[in-house]
Amino acid sequence: MSVTDNSEERFSIVQLNAELKNTELELMSAHCAVYKLRLRFSTGELARHGHRDVLRKSIETANSINAYFSSLEKEIHMGEPAPAVRGGLTEAKILQGVECVARYLDDQRNHYLPLATPLSKAHKDIMRPYFPADLLEDVRMLDLRGARLSNPPFYPQARELGFMNLPDIAHMNSMTFRDVLVFNEQVTERFLFHALVHAVQFQVLGIERYTELFVRSFINARFHFLVPLEAHAFLLESKFARPTPESFSVEEQVRLWAKQNRY
User: pTM above the 0.85 mark?
Assistant: First the structure.
């Protein structure tokens, strides 16, 4: 009898892969947290000023995880090597990908705009120290209230090209489609701030440049939260969420990063 012929064994495999997927998402979240830490502080600053007990436990945890997955890697039959994404993409294919993403963003904006509503006065008051007044007036938002965004229709073709770490949009807090903010999760001040940062990026860069920067960075980074556009949004979000936040201009920060070619 094969493994898949046994219903009990088949259920355990399903459960195994479900838990593996949850672990992957949690590891990606941890990876994102570490990346935000790296953006703000050097290793020297952390070594000098970080609490020794927290540093020691974090290092032990990271080393333990690395050892576990390294031992697992040795048992996996690798087969053919994973495709080298950048090397397998011509400039024409990259530009085609940029066009697909831009079209998707426009299509989603046009789909959700009639359903979206202006920001409430309370939300505007909270966000006013950080964002231009005209942007807060112009953006629209939509809470899907239990429903979730689906992945773009071009994902299968992208995976064929070697993109194996495409973001699962259904598990993201929100998506910004230019000036329309769509939330998978209940809208919090922090989630709203993050989505608005992307709206500013669209406003400053324009959809064509934003999309090209995102696609080209993703090709190199392989994870969406390592793309500078996304990393900057997380960095500013963390600054906003500090216990004693200070007002600052998100637009000035975005223009500065654009001027310094950090995107």
Answer: no
